[in-house]
Specification:
The chain has 456 residues and is mainly β. Helices cover 7% and strands 45% of the residues. The strands form 9 sheets. Strands 5, 6, 8, 9 and 10 form a 5-stranded antiparallel sheet that branches. Strands 13-19-18-15-16 form a 5-stranded mixed sheet, with no helix packed on it. Strands 28-29-30-31-35 form a 5-stranded mixed sheet, with no helix packed on it. It comes from Pseudoalteromonas arctica.
Length: 456
């Protein structure tokens, strides 16, 4: 009679069948901690519970409520309770994952707690409501380049997530706020990866910060035969070295450009915003080159060879290949690599311009004097978003030659910049004495025509 009586009592004394679920894990073990007393180790009983769950997120669908929560590394399973008819009632007692779905008919009040063999954490009620698709709205650092040991603040804002995690150089920070920031001390190149998880979706974004470490020059015993770059202790970008006269211009992996004479003496050093990946070109006493930034963008720069004065303009997208000079049609003499004067500057560069090809397929034409954008072109659709790694060339027929595949070269027709010698002289003189801050074009870039294509 006793079993029957207990069964009837179970179905009549409670308001819901949920209370009939059994929590097998309620028989917890006792946790002990070792202590040393007079050289003798003894174990004393202690209370040991998992960490409280940080976030419990709810998402409403047309047919159900979908719950997700941040998992704790020390929880073995989770217990869910549902607030029904004025009281908390057990609905799940041994969930090893971090989500649960419930029918909408009984309300939207839930709570969760994690447990292990020694006990359970405190309850966490719903503290995040999901109403939008998963989206990382912002992820940034306050600095892109810092000194060694300097603090960097990384900030983020995420919508539609149930959990946000951050990885910094292999160190994981979990269950972060959906909007927040974290200060990191950078001692070396630092990479950041933000991951947002929510209801079947995952979004990730990455960025990095360059650390400007003190340069250590290694002392090397010199031999009788001296090579200019051998004993400088520089991490050189070999394919970007260029020599002019008695000087060598040496880019390095840490974002510097050095001028070195043939006696291994560094004449000047210029800090760049990124790394020069390809050999610069020389025109009228200037070096023209592209710089790749950690952020994925690029810059076109010009450096005066005698004093290291440098001017750079952002390209808005990644540029790896060096630029190419589109020469003056009326100029018959080659540019003087060393001498520089106002007269040859205007005569040699009046109609000349600088062409730069980004990895997205955008071709910018810059003024040699001011690096302002004169024209914008774009490669045909099939050739866009194809990394241009090797340097471009310009043929006598004004064709831009690009390696568009490992074994393929394509020639694109570059339109003429226009005619009218007098107006060009006036605008060049005007640009020489004034600086324009408007480098953008209001019209869509012109699509370049293909002149020919050959397989190598």
């Amino acid at each position: 009679m006793k079993p029957a009586f207990l069964l009837i009592h179970c179905f009549t004394a409670v308001l819901s069948f949920y209370s009939c679920l059994v929590i097998a894990q309620q028989d917890f073990q006792q946790a002990y901690a070792p202590i040393n007393v007079s050289g003798i180790t003894i174990f004393v009983p202690i209370e040991l519970y998992p960490d409280t769950t940080t976030y419990l997120t709810i998402k409403e669908t047309p047919t159900e409520y979908w719950l997700q929560w941040t998992k704790n590394s020390d929880s073995k399973y989770y217990i869910i309770e549902h607030y029904i008819n004025g009281s908390w009632q057990l609905v799940a007692s041994n969930i090893t994952g971090n989500e649960y779905r419930a029918d909408k008919s009984l309300g939207n009040k839930f709570r969760v707690k994690g447990c292990h063999q020694y006990g359970c954490a405190g309850w966490t009620s719903i503290n995040n409501v999901n109403t939008s698709p998963l989206h990382i709205t912002s992820f940034s650092t306050n600095k892109s380049k810092v000194a060694q040991g300097e603090r960097v603040v990384v900030s983020w804002n995420v919508e539609g997530a149930s959990e946000v995690n951050l990885k910094v150089n292999g160190t994981h920070y979990k269950a972060l706020p959906f909007t927040g920031n974290k200060a990191i001390t950078a001692y070396d190149y630092s990479s950041f990866e933000l991951s947002a998880v929510g209801f079947g979706s995952t979004k990730k974004q990455k960025m990095a910060v360059v650390v400007d470490k003190p340069q250590v020059i290694k002392e090397v015993e010199l031999s009788g035969y001296l090579q200019p770059l051998m004993n400088l202790g520089l991490d050189i970008v070999e394919r970007a070295i260029v020599t002019s006269g008695n000087f060598t211009y040496v880019p390095t992996q840490d974002g510097f450009l050095h001028k070195v004479n043939n006696q291994s003496q560094i004449i000047w050093s210029k800090s760049l915003n990124g790394v020069m990946a390809n050999k610069p070109i020389i025109d009228n006493g200037y070096l023209y080159y592209s710089v790749s930034l950690i952020s994925g963008e690029g810059e076109i720069c010009k450096t005066y060879m005698h004093s290291a004065d440098t001017q750079c303009k952002s390209t808005g997208s990644e540029v790896i290949a060096s630029p190419v000079i589109k020469p003056n049609k009326n100029s018959t003499s080659p540019p003087d690599e060393q001498a520089f004067s106002i007269s040859n500057y205007f005569s040699g560069s009046l109609n000349s311009s600088l062409l730069s090809v980004s990895t997205t397929g955008l071709v910018n034409e810059y003024s040699l004097e001011t690096l302002t954008v004169k024209n914008q072109f774009i490669l045909p659709g099939d050739y866009r978003n194809n990394p241009i790694l090797s340097d471009a060339k310009l043929s006598k027929q004004n064709e831009l030659l690009l390696r568009t595949a490992p074994n393929q070269v394509t020639a694109f027709l570059i339109p003429s910049s226009g005619s009218g010698r007098g107006s060009e002289i006036f605008s060049s003189v005007q640009r020489f004495f004034t600086t324009s801050s408007d480098d953008t074009q209001n019209t869509e870039p012109q699509v370049l025509d293909i002149a020919w294509q050959k397989e190598l």
